Amino acid sequence: MAKAKLKQKEIETIAARAPAETHPADGPSLKSHWPEKRKLIRKMRDLYEKRLDYEIRWKAIRDYQLPFIGEFDNTADKTNPARRRDLEIAQGVAWLAAQVFAAGVMSGLTPPSRQWFKLGFSNSAMSGDIEATRVLDIRQEIVSAVLSKSNFYNSIHSVYLELPFGQCPMAIFYDPSTGIRCVPMTIGTYALGVDGFGKVQTFARKYEMSLAQIVDCFGQESLPQHLQQQATNGTGLDKKHTVNWLVEPNDKRLPGYMDRLNMPYRSVYWLDKSQDNEFLYVGGFEEWAIPVARYLVNGLEPYAKGPGWFAEGDSKALQTMKKDLLTAIEIGVKPPMKGPASLLDNGGINLIPGGMTAVDDQSQQFVQPLFQVNLDIDHASQEIIRTEDAIKRHYSADLFLMLDSVDNGQMTAREVMERTQEKLQQLGPVVERLQDEFLTPIIVRIYNILERSGAFPPIPPEIQERISDEDIKIEYISPLAQAQKMSGLVNIEQALATTLQMAQAWPEVLKKVDPIGTLSKYFEMLGAPAAMQRSDDDVKKLIEQEQQALQEQQQTQEAMALMQAAAPAAQAAKNMTEAANDGNPAMAAWLGMGGGAGEV
């Protein structure tokens, strides 16, 4: 994951820098190495043409489900951004379901209140090196702190809210004050391209900026000559201009150079109707800087399909049924009326509450409903409820709202767990794709930015030597990721429970279990931090020390037992000797001592 360090001034940003006339001193001319603008314009045009069919569906999803998201060129989004966009919606359940979906994915995949990823070594043998693992833990904490300090969590919530359209890109830039700055892209403002493996490797965007904003972002010296004069004179600062931005693999990269024109990815900004040699900024990125969250992808398509696609038919049907139901209710409350034709000469029928309509007494025709309205709206209401539930299921809102049932006492925790695991089988592929295509590039990008800017503390030489050739992997420990791993944890717990039950009758079964290895595997699956674990060497030393102390204790106990057993015999021998010395002839004779009977 780690890249070569660069000086902070060499780290790419969205802000323009005035390019030097040559790139290294012995290198080719900088401007001669610039990309061909005509090719860039043609490529951007092709990308936008390929998305036209998708654009029809995106607009339909917005009109009938998510009216407050998106910005399209051929609509009033730009001319009247304050206009009402929900005129086609009579029942906004899809918008509410999208809010639940975004909040659920946020809390389940990238919760701000807890750690949701962990850095580790791809080499499993390194998991026992606690010192090396602690280095990654420290770096992980720094990355997490940068995520919290920056606008990452606000931006990624916007991404999840856009995910019902199928996908949402989020650009990540270096920011000297917060470390990073994230920019989510709303639907309709971008176009995507993929490589031969289906990986998003091309990004195009068109957006409008005022002249003052362009100067703030790119610098006045990067503007075309006529706009520089306007900026100098202070005229036309509020006038909007269309900015084009294209990011793609750098096919003009020169080997051996590390300047901004020779990075793996090229990033180019220019204004509409500018000259061929006029660019706002030409630079690049060292890694893919615009990860794209995608929901469900078919083949090598750059765009995905999300809950909004699946719920489109139900949403349109819901709006029709809701409007018909409201019409039926209105007819029942205010039915069409009939009366004598003479009423037309008297101003018609007064339907205002408390109003009076003059009727000819001689006429037998009175004001009354044109027909009897006896509508049974229960069936229509029930069908609307079923359709709403279907839309919620498309958005997985029922899954994310399921936990609320525990607090209400409607379901037990076990029932929630079982149903959640069933739903996670449906969300599993989506979670895996988001982790692989979206979250992993985000963490890699942020990690490399922080390493290049010197944000990580230095690594001790002895540890650096051990980890220099090791690859770093990203493990996800979010609630959704752990819920998918729950089956593995449950298997371990069930195996231990069965072993303990059998040990009550057959104690020898405990010899089958390796407690240290079992706990290590359990910690690994839980993503337990290295600070709470001892290394394998430390555990081995502790076991050896305990065994040695136990042996010494046993030897001491055995010596004490021998001493205690020998004490009575020694006391008896002493007593016998004293008796013989006191003149007991029998004892003296038995001990073979002189002075017995018959001795002269």
Structure characterization notes:
Residues 1-27 and 596-600 have low confidence and may be disordered. Among the domains are: 11-90 and 186-289, no CATH class; 537-591. The protein is built from 18 helices and twelve strands. It is of the alpha+beta class. The protein is flat and about 165 Å long. It has a five-stranded antiparallel β-sheet. Strands 3-2-9 form a three-stranded antiparallel β-sheet, covered by helices on one side. The chain has helices at residues 37-50, 52-64, 93-109, 130-149, 152-162, 211-218, 225-233, 307-310, 312-333, 378-394, 397-400, 404-407, 413-452, 461-467, 479-503, 515-526, 536-581, 585-591; strands spanning 117-121, 167-175, 179-184, 190-194, 200-210, 240-249, 265-271, 281-285, 292-294, 337-338, 368-369, 472-476.
From the N-terminal CA to the C-terminal CA, the straight-line distance is 106 Å
Q: Would you list the SSEs in sequence order as H and E?
A: HHHEHHEEEEHHEEEEHHEEHHHHHEHHHH
Helix fraction by DSSP (H/I, runs of at least 4): 40-55%
Backbone CA Rg: 40 Å
Count of beta strands: 12
Shape estimate = flat
Cross-sheet strand order for the largest sheet: 4-5-6-7-8
Quick synopsis:
This protein is α+β, with helices and mostly antiparallel strands and 600 residues long. It is built from 18 helices and twelve strands.
SSE order and pairing:
Elements: H1 37-50, H2 52-64, H3 93-109, E1 117-121, H4 130-149, H5 152-162, E2 167-175, E3 179-184, E4 190-194, E5 200-210, H6 211-218, H7 225-233, E6 240-249, E7 265-271, E8 281-285, E9 292-294, H8 307-310, H9 312-333, E10 337-338, E11 368-369, H10 378-394, H11 397-400, H12 404-407, H13 413-452, H14 461-467, E12 472-476, H15 479-503, H16 515-526, H17 536-581, H18 585-591
Antiparallel strand pairs: 1-12, 2-3, 2-9, 4-5, 5-6, 6-7, 7-8, 10-11
Helix pairs in contact: 3-5, 9-10, 13-15, 15-16, 17-18
